Amino acid sequence: MNTAPHRTQDSDPRSVLVASDLDRTLIYSAAALALDVPDAEAPRLLCVEVYQGKPLSYLTETAAALLDGLARTTHFVPTTTRTVEQYRRIHLPGPAARHAICSNGGQILVNGEPDEEWRRQVTGRIADECAPLEEVRAHLRHTADPAWLLKDRVAENLFAYLVVDRALLPGTWVKDLSAWAGPRGWTVSLQGRKIYAVPKPLTKSAALREVTRRTGATRVLAAGDSLLDADLLLAADRSWRPGHGELADEGWQAPNLTALPERGVAAGETILRSLTRAAAPDRA
Ligand SMILES: [Mg+2]
Q1: Residue 127 gets which letter from DSSP?
Q2: From CA 122, how far away is CA 129, in angstroms rounded?
Q3: What domains, with CATH codes, occur in the chain?
Q4: Each residue's pLDDT tens digit, 40-65
Q5: CB burial string 111-125: b at 16+ within 10 A, e below
Q6: What distance in angstroms lies between residue 258's CA and the mean position of ligand 1's atoms?
Q7: Which of 157, 220, 232, 265 lies at a C-alpha separation of 20 to 30 Å from 255?
Q8: Long-range pairs, 77-80, Cβ under 8 A, ≥24
Q9: Per-residue pLDDT tens for 219-264?
């Protein structure tokens, strides 16, 4: 976008901002693909992330072409709970995003670099409203069982997450953690093998509002699959979620939300097709 003079007419597709979650919304690990067709009919996949020398995340080639088009015609804003370092491993099709939201809203990247002023604002709000990260980590250490705890991590000194063995994780553990964390200003989300504990003011939607303000976008479309995407989906004019993930498992609905039946990497393709259609000027 940024060299062309900015126009604000609704008919200008550039006035549309598309904020999408990445993992299990647009990109999928091998374990999350959920391909339900015979191998001979499986779509060709494009690998967009390599981790420790091995392919990790994919989208279909059709999804890749749709994303390329979307990134050329809208303000496309990758919006993820990943840290900046984890985000930088992903190489999405299309031109580089001018803005990206990382660390669940704790970081706004502008042309790939963190915006320090935004980070300061977010840190201040968390310090005012939430129990300290160390208290949450201590609680996690005391209650998590090494029998199922695989990794215990802090993301950019903002929030904590655990990698767990889901087969051995007791059914009530996440619920109990949520009940403990809620009154302390923290929220809990279970996504695949990861359990996130995130300060409540650390949201994708707060960062989205800031990016929307900066770009002057007049219409916002969003997509996401997990509890940490709920506020993002509500903040948009229209939003989509796949048929898998925390929100689908809960049957979560909203008036502006389209709940798609597709699951796995096929859902990523449908989401991109829906976003492309909704962003087209004649739909404005
Ligand atoms: Mg996700």
Answers
A1: H
A2: 11
A3: 13-122+202-283 (3.40.50.1000), 131-199 (3.90.1070)
A4: 999 999 999 999 999 999 999 999 99
A5: eeebbeebbeebbee
A6: 16
A7: 265
A8: 77/17, 77/18, 77/19, 77/20, 77/101, 77/208, 77/211, 78/20, 78/22, 79/19, 79/20, 79/21, 79/22, 79/204, 79/207, 79/208, 79/222, 79/224, 79/232, 80/21, 80/22, 80/23, 80/104
A9: 999 999 999 999 999 999 999 999 999 999 999 999 999 999 999 9
How many of the other CB atoms lie within 10 Å of CB of 279?
24
Contacts of 142 (CB under 8 A, 6+ apart): none
- Ligand 1 geometric centre to CA of 7 (Å): 32
Q: DSSP of 158-205, one letter per residue?
A: TEEEEEE-TTTS-TTHHHHHHHHHGGGTEEEEEETTEEEEEETT--HH
Q: Which residues surround ligand 1, an ion (CB under 5 A)?
A: 21, 23-25, 225-226
| pLDDT band at residue 7 using 50, 70 and 90 as cut-offs | very low
State yes or no: pLDDT of 6 exceeds 50.
no
Q: What is the model's pTM?
A: 0.91
Rg, Å, the chain Cα set: 19
d(CA 185, CA 218): 32
Average pLDDT for the chain:
94
Q: What is the DSSP string of 215-261?
A: HT-SEEEEE--SGGGHHHHHHSSEEEE-SSSHHHHTT---TTEEE--
Q: Does 5 have pLDDT greater than 80?
A: no
